[in-house]
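My hope is that you will study the record closing this message with an eye to the fold:
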Amino acid sequence: MVGFAAGGGLALGLAAFMAAQRAAELLLSAANARRLRAMGAVEAGREHYRWIVGLHAAFLLSLAAEGAASRPPAAWPWVLALFALAQALRYWAIAALGRRWTTRVWVLPGASLVRRGPYRFLRHPNYVAVMAEFVAAPLAAGAYLTLLVFAPLNAWLLWRVRIPAEEAALGG
């Protein structure tokens, strides 16, 4: 019974943290999008955005539900360290983009691509962070079905849909 409580608490904590994080990011994104639109930016890739939102919502629900009934692996602290590194990468990417960061693809005519922060080393650091989250959170909580279903779906959506749309819009 101790494993159930520990797993459930960890899973619910991770899901709640990520849900709060996503809510805060949506507020920041909306504010940045308003500024970008006022500067003449245009949105691209709008048609796939709802799939990203839906996938993230379903992932968080699955993580909470499965994790509440699971036992975390003995190595969960190490997996949480990977999760923490993903968070650091995510916020480094957000900081590097500054007021140009959004959850949608906004193209500001004439603006050059950002090449500072993690963008010096990675083309899509935020997506690397998201993939690490989709692996680390379920692993830490012992939610293996969530991992097996949502990590591949997220990878496919990012690498086959979102990134090509972003690259086409940004001229990359």
The chain is about 75% helix and 5% strand. Residues 77 and 141 are 10 Å apart (CA to CA).
